[in-house]
Amino acid sequence: MAVMSAIESAVIHLIAEGVQDRLWNLADGVPLEKTVLADYLNESVPMM
Question: How many domains does the chain have?
Answer without folding.
Answer: 1
